[in-house]
Structures are given as structure tokens and as C-alpha cells.
Structure prediction request, 249 residues.
Amino acid sequence: MSERQDNVIQFKKRNTGKIIAVIAGVIAIGLICLFTCFKIDTIEVTGNKHYSKEQIKKYVLSEGYINNTVLLMLKNKVRPIEDVPFVAKIDIEYVNAHKITVTVYEKALAGCVEYMNEYVYFDQDGYVLEISPTKIEDTPCITGMHFESMELHEKLPIKDKTRFKLILKMTQLISKYKLSIDSIQFTSENEIVMQYQSIRIELGDGSDLEHQLLDLGEMLKALDGQKGTLDLKDFDTASGNASFKKSKE
Prediction:
């Protein structure tokens, strides 16, 4: 091999070494920037209803917390936060070097029933979403029913299919008309009684729920602060008149 060829090979080796050194330097600088320039200063929480912003932040800052906007976002993509009661999903999005947005997607609770001193929450299709000792406000609780068992993610074990459909229809209408109902009771005569604050709402057998609940919100506003029984069993849809009997003080 000639001397000229030796020089060419040595020159190529030197260039290869320089390229590797440059790449290593760029990677090192990138890692330094990644771990020093992306500290989390602000966590913005949206979509939360049942949990406060501070409670959601605690979930984010708990197990495996990484104080880095980029790395925390990537970690959530690979291993998202799970097993948070009443929450379907939590997304973490990068906003800027020092800020992330946490979006909470809560489960749509239609109502709940009592079972073994706990509350069983279900969706508008009757599937069990959560079983918890905690009573969530603004979620109507249905009483006057008994269950032998209860399974998460399964339909409510109601043998009477007519009553099951009636429960689903009630909770769907309550959601549709944005009604605040505290509880729903099936009486021994198979009639439906709702409770709103100090007002008892009698609906009869539930055969005319659509019309009965359509104007209920306005009726309850007009009766705000009063105590008594609102009888909608013979509600006149044409006139919109309903019977209200005040409770004796």
C-alpha cells in the first residue's frame, strides 16, 4: 500500500472520530437541556367535576412522578394514570417548557342504588361503573330495591325488565332536562316517588314520565324553599297545572 493511501485512511479515521464526538456532544447537550430546562411550574386541570383540582394534581404527582413536562407527558402516553374512581381517563398534554394541562374524563353517572352499605353507580345503559362507600352529590339514588349480587361492568341485576327499562328512562330524562333529584323510590304499590330537597314528587306508575318531567324543572324553581308534596300522577299536560300540598309546619 502506498504512503498516499495510508494518509487517506488516517484522514477518514480522524473524520469518523470527529463525527462521533460531535454527535455525542449534541446528545449530551440535549439531555442536559431536557433534564434542566423543562421543570414543571404550572399544572392546569380541566374537565373535573367530582374531584377538586388539588385532588387531581395529587394523582398526577403520586406514583412515578417526573418533574419534567416532556417526560411526564411521554410517560402518560406509555403508562397512563388508571384506577381513579369515577374517572374514565386522564390525559396530560404539553403546553410549554414549564406548563402541562391535565384533562379529566369522568364517567357519566346516571344514578346509583344501595347495596351492602355501598353505592353502586351505573350509566345510562344500566352498566355498573363504580361501587363505592361515597355518595356523589347530584346523582339520584334509587331506593326500594333489593339485590343478591352486584358485578362491576355488568348490567344491574334487575329481574323485572319493565322496571329496569323504567329506571333507565327516568335517569335519561333527568339528565336530558338537567334536573336535580336527590332520590328515587319505588313504593310497595310499585309507584315512583322522587325527592328534591323538602319536596316529595309523586309520579304514579311512571307511564307518563316524558310529560311529567318535561316541566318539572320550572315547577321546582317556582316552589323553591317550600316543603310539601307535588302530585304529578294526574298531571294535565294541556294546562300545565299540577297539585302541590304544603307540609304542616
